[in-house]
Amino acid sequence: MARKSNQKTKMLLLYQLLLEKGDEDHPIPTARLLEELERQGVSAERKSIYADMEALREFGMDVQCRKGKEGGWFVGERDFQLPELKLLVDAVQSCRFISKRKSDVLIRKLEGLASEHQARQLRRQVYVDRRVKTGNETVYYAIDKLHTAIGSNRAVTFRYFDYNVRKEQVFRREGKRYTVSPYGLIWSDENYYLVGWDHQEKELRHYRVDKMEGLSCVSFPREGDERCKSFDLAEYGQKHFHMFSGIEAKPRLRCENRMVNVMLDRFGMDVMLIPDGEDHFVLTVDAVVSPQFYGWLFGLGAGVELTHPRWAVEEYQALLRRSLEGSGQAAH
Fold first, then answer.
1. How many angstroms separate the CA atoms of 235 and 183, rounded?
2. What does the pLDDT look like over 148-202, one tens digit per residue?
3. Contacts for 300 with CB less than 8 Å, ≥ 6 apart
4. Rounded to an integer, what distance in angstroms lies between the CA atom of residue 18 and that of residue 290?
5. pLDDT grade for 133, boundaries at 50, 70 and 90
6. Which residue has the higher pLDDT, 237 or 193?
7. pTM of the predicted model, to two decimals?
8. Angle between helical axes of 30-39 and 46-59 (0-180°, round to 10)
9. What are the Cα distances from residue 206, in Å, to 38, 167, 219, 317?
């Protein structure tokens, strides 16, 4: 019998079948491989399959063969194992800066890295959803532009907006373009932020990427290097609670011992905890003091007390008094 014209593609088809149709829980019997090849116009003999599988192993593919009634061929070690793909699907689905449409596209691509059986598990995992997702499709590509600008030490320009009560974009600086030398990107509270040197304000600031419009790289070099020699992206992100601006300081907190894990989660394992009696400890942290910092303190209740600096203590006390007075008036 004459060989069919697609014989040269046999090895590629076997490679594709192993990756797409089977896995460790669903090995592919040799008979089915022969049927699938025949369907693609490729004739093969049982003994040739073993030689082909050995060639795929030499190529670097972890081809395994299970004996027995439920046996067959499958790929053992893949580039991404199923638990890893589940983590990636969760991350994509949770990211509010990735639109729902782009999330669906990325998840379908991740499914392509698994067998068809595993892909069904990934699909069942995507059950959402009332998660808030951005409607700004350009964010996905803006992040890539910003990484390119950072890598090439170039500045960027963009317009920056907020929303009004009618959900309309209102541009800051009367719609004039910002010029910023980017120093890094921070993912915080499910949003991406650009940290960079503002050419007009002559200081380091941060901007939400999904609120940028018309982002463009420009040819002139980055500014602010002299002022930002000691800039640390991780430190910057840790200091700014929910990425709001305020006054940089070194607040001292007196905490009940039960708050140890809360403080380590927020400020890291390097923070120094100093015992203060049997039931309390004290720590001094680097933080930007802002209404969001005070709100974080308030949420921790009586277990944490702000003791320094004095101006921050007084500001926090005044904020609490105003809140109590407001609550009292509302009750009447």
1. 13
2. 998 888 999 999 999 887 778 899 999 999 999 999 998 877 778 999 999 999 9
3. 259, 262
4. 56
5. low
6. 193
7. 0.60
8. 90
9. 60, 22, 21, 28
pLDDT for 181 equals: 94
**331's tokens:** 């009750």
Q: At what angle do helices 100-111 and 116-125 cross, to 10 degrees?
A: 150
User: What average pLDDT score do residues 63-69 get?
Assistant: 89
- 100-111 and 82-94 helices, crossing angle to 10°: 170
CA distances from 101 to 105, 109, 110, 213, 256 (A): 6, 13, 15, 19, 46
- Match 């407001």 to its residue by tokens: 326
| 3-state per-residue secondary structure call for the chain | CCCCCCHHHHHHHHHHHHHHHCECCECECHHHHHHHHHHCCCCCCHHHHHHHHHHHHHHCCCEEEECCCCCEEEECCCCCCHHHHHHHHHHHHHCCCCCHHHHHHHHHHHHCCCCHHHHHHHHHHCCCCCCCCCCCCCHHHHHHHHHHHHHCCEEEEEEEEEECCCCCEEEHHHHCCEEEEEEEEEEECCEEEEEEEECCCCEEEEEEHHHEEEEEEEEEECCCCCCCCCCCHHHHHHHCHHHCCCEEECCEEEEEHHHHHHHHHHHCCCCCCEEECCCEEEEECCEEECHHHHHHHHHCHHHEEEEECHHHHHHHHHHHHHHHHHHHHHHC
Location of structure tokens 């053992």: 76
Among candidate residues 25, 24, 53, 23, the one with its CA nearest the CA of residue 37: 53
Quote the distance between the C-alpha of residue 70 and its chain's center: 40
Name which of 133, 156, 132, 139 is nearest 211 in CA terms.
139
The one-letter amino acid at 206: H
Provide the pLDDT for residue 103: 85
| For residue 119, pLDDT beyond 70 | yes
How many Cα neighbours within 13 Å face the side chain of 282?
Answer: 10
Nearest alpha-carbon partner for 78 in 23, 33, 3: 23
Higher per-residue confidence, 1 vs 150: 150
